[in-house]
Amino acid sequence: MKRRGGPQIFKATRHKHHRSQKNAEPGKDHSVAEPETLQLLIEGLSEQGAGVARHKDRPVFIAGALPGEQVEVKIQGRFRRHDEAELVSVIEASPDRAQPSCEYFGRCGGCQLQHLAEPKQAKIKHEQLQRRVRAAGFDGELEVIESPFFAYRHRARLAYSRGKFGFRAANAKDVVAIEQCPLLSDPLNQTIQQLKSLISENVPDTVSLECLLSESVATFSPITETPVGVLFRVQSFGKKGSRPDKRWVARLSSELPENLCLFDIEDDAGKSELSEYQESAGDSALQYQLTENLALAFTPADFTQVNPLVNHAMIATVCEWLNPEAGETIADFFCGLGNFSLPIAAKGAAVRSFDLGADMIARAVKQADFYELAIDYLCCDLFDAKQTPSLRGISKAVLDPPRAGAKQLCEEIAQSRDLQKLVYVSCSPASLQRDLEILSRGGFKIKAVKAADMFPQTHHQEAMVLLSRD
Ligand SMILES: C[S@@+](CC[C@H](N)C(=O)[O-])C[C@H]1O[C@@H](n2cnc3c(N)ncnc32)[C@H](O)[C@@H]1O
Fold first, then answer.
1. Spans of biased composition, class Basic residues (predicted)?
2. Residues 15-70: pLDDT tens digits?
C-alpha cells in the first residue's frame, strides 16, 4: 500500500462543512444566511473528531481543527445547543498536526483524524473514554489493545452512484471516487481495482449500488489464498420501478473475476436477483478465524468485527475476564454470528445467545452444531421490553450492543439476582456511560476497562468494561 511520506506540513485539510444530522430539529433550517468569519482557539476534540471552540458562550464544532490551534472559521449552522463552523484556515497549527496519508481525506466520510499524529489520536480517544468511565465511577487506569494504524480492515462498504465508485462522502449523499483506501487490506484494495472497471463498463450510471466486500480472516490457519466475497445491492432511494435490469445483472455476474466470490445482487428490499448463483457461492465461502480451533462462516452482509487483530485480543479478554467453566450458564447478548459465544462455549460453559439478525442466528446455529458446542441461540429484539429474555440461572454475561447501547437490557440486568459478572463491549462512549450508570445503580462495580483501538484514523471508539457485584 503506497503512502505519501515526507515532512509534516502545517496547512489544514479543507473539510467540507456537513450539517449535524443528530441534533437537527425536523423542519428547521439551521443554516446561517450570512456566515460570520471568526478567529477562535480550539480547546478540545469532540467524540465525533471535530475541534471544539467557544464563541459567545456556545460550543462551536469545527471539522479539521485540532486542540491548541488558532483558526479562522465561518459559522455555517446554528443548533439549539451548539454552532457548527467551516474551517477557513489554520493561523497557528498544533505540533500534533500531521500530513494526511490519504488524498481523499476531508472529502471521504470514512476517516476524521488523519490530520492528527497517530499516537495523539489514540491518546485523545483514551482520554475521552477515561472521562466517560470516570463519570460512571471508575477511577483506575485504562489498559489498551493496540492496532496498526493502516491496512487493518477486512471488510468495506462501497457505493456506485452517477458513474462514480468509491466511499460515501461525509454528507452521505455523494460518492467520492477512490483508487484505494489505506485502511483496507491489500486484497480488498486489489478487489476495488478489479470492480471499478467492471462496474463502469457494465452498470449504467443511472443505477445506484451498494457494494459490500469482505475478506476471509485466516490469522491462525495456513490458508494461502484468502477469498474476497462481494455482494451488490441496488439502491432505489424510494423510487418505484427501479428493479435491476436483467441484462447488466447478467453481465456483472458473469464477468466477475474468478478470484472473487459473488454472494448476490439484491434489490433494496433484499430480494435476490441471482438466486441460483447465491446457492453456488455457498454460505461458508468466507471464514473468519477466531482462535486456533474456531472459525465463523460468514457472508459480506453479516456483522463481523472489522479489525481482526483487535478482535482476537477482545475474544481473549472476554474469556480471561469471564473465566467460563463447565456447569455455569453464560449469556452473549447482541451475539451476531457467535464471535464470543463459540470461544466461551469451547471453554465448557453452556451459552445462551441473543441477536435480532435472523440470518446471522441461522448461520450461528449451524456453526455451533459443526463444533458440537452447547449454545442456545435465540432471535429477539433486545430493545423491546416485551422480548427481554429471562435472566434466571445466568451467572455471567457479555453484551456487545450497537451504538445505541443497551438501556432496556441493562435495566433488566440491574434488577436480576443471578447475574454477578458482566463484560460490556461498547462502540459508543456516550451510551456506554449511560448504561454503566444504570448498572452501577444495580450494584455492579467497574473492575477493569480496556480501550480497544479498533478504528484508527476515525473518530470511532471501542471499549471493554468488566463489571461485577462482589
Ligand atoms: C456490535 S455488533 C456485535 C456482534 C457480535 N457480538 C460480534 O462480536 O461479532 C451488534 C449486534 O447487535 C445486533 N442488534 C442490533 N440491534 C439489536 C436489537 N434491537 N436486538 C438484538 N440485537 C440487536 C446486531 O444484529 C449485531 O449483531
1. 12-21
2. 554 445 555 666 666 677 778 899 999 999 999 999 999 999 999 999 999 999 99
ipTM over 0.95: yes
215 plus 250 within the same structural domain: yes
CA of 188 to the centre of ligand 1 (A): 24
- Residue 222 pLDDT exceeds 60: no
356 within ligand 1 shell (Cβ under 6 A): yes
Tell me whether residue 444 is annotated as binding: no
Residue 105 annotated as binding site:
no
| 196 SS3 class | helix
Domain containing residue 166 = 155-288
Task: Classify residue 74: in a domain, yes or no.
Answer: yes
> Residues 85, 134: one domain?
no
Residue type, 272: S
Residue 13 has which C-alpha cell? Answer: 485539510
Residue nearest to atom 17 of ligand 1 (CA): 356
* 3-class DSSP assignment, residue 251: helix
Asked if 359 and 301 touch (Cβ cutoff 8 Å), the reply is yes
Alpha helices for 301-392 (secondary structure H): 308-322, 341-346, 358-371
Does 382 sit in the ligand 1 pocket, CB within 6 Å? yes
Q: Are residues 75 and 160 part of one domain?
A: no
305 has binding-site annotation: yes
Predicted confidence band at 5 (pLDDT cuts at 50, 70, 90)? very low
How far is ligand 1, taken at its centre, from the CA of residue 401, in Å?
5
Which atom of ligand 1 is found nearest the CA of 311? 8
Residue 299 domain flag: no
350-397 residue pLDDT tens? 999 999 999 999 999 999 999 999 999 999 999 999 999 999 999 999
> Cα separations (Å) of 404 from 128, 281, 284, 299?
18, 34, 30, 24
- For 313, half-sphere exposure in the C-beta direction (CA atoms, 13 angstrom radius) is 16
Q: ∠463-465-470 over CA atoms, to 5°?
A: 175
169 DSSP 8-state letter: B
Give the span between the Cα atoms of 440 and 428, in whole angstroms: 18
Active site residue 379: no
Whether the per-residue pLDDT at 102 is higher than 80: the answer is yes
Identify whether residues 211 and 127 lie together within a single domain.
no
Separation of CA 381 and ligand 1 centre (Å): 10
**Domain termination site, one of 242, 261, 288:** 288
